[in-house]
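so the lab meeting is tmrw and i was supposed to have these ready like two days ago... anyway. pasting both below. for each one the top line is the aa sequence and the line under it is the structure tokens. i havent really looked at them closely yet so no promises
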Amino acid sequence: TVPGEWPCPGDGRCPQDSYLLPYFSALNQYLAVGVPVYFVTTGGYDFSSTNGTNAICSSAGCDSDSLI
């Protein structure tokens, strides 16, 4: 399989009438993610505080200028 694609649709592993096809299609469409990315910080962040965590997070409620 191609990295980043689910194996079922189009590669013959699922029957054409499989109930899983819509599930895998939705995963391909809405869960398109890349490889993991890691950042190494050299200091200055207090990860135990809310402000320190919000400075590097990427989900709802994070600072608009967060690292990620």
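ok protien two:
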Amino acid sequence: MTSRLESFARAAWPVVMSLALAPSAAPASQTAREQAAKELARKTPAGSVQACSLITRADVQKATGRDPYVDPEPAGQGGWICNVGSGELKVYSGPKSWEAWESTLKGFKKDKEPQTPASGFGERAYFLYPKPDNKHQNNVAFLVVKAGDRTLALSLDAPEGKPGESMRPALESLMKTILARLP
């Protein structure tokens, strides 16, 4: 039961982070639950790729050395989000995919967090280690990469007591696998 609850909580945080993709900001009176429902109903552009076609449980285990305890679970219309327990992949598609990701960060007030360039993944690629909003959140690390008309945001939870930065090698390894599978 606890691992299911943890899996749900892990899946919910990035979905909530994805709420600000709409061109205008959500009204202040809109709850996080309402925003999440709206975001999950968002239509994806033609030619979008299903995120779970790019990442497997075995991939996450190999990169992190930890079993994520769940198989890939798609979310969002068209499956643009894929939760794999301690990891998640979001695939934003279309000519404004980068702007959509940046809007997500801004909506969750994470756009001012320091970004560390990620060499070897393109000009815009970076690592992001956002501070947890409360003591119940794990440290998390992101690797964000632009690939054609897609923006991929890969996140991994750090083991308890470890900083997000400790996930950098795993993010690099896993992102290389994901990029090799892009159509």
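from a quick look at the 2nd one: Helices lie at 2-17, 32-40, 57-64, 97-107, 168-181. The domain at 2-181 is CATH 3.40.1000 (Protein Transport Mog1p; Chain A). will dig more after coffe
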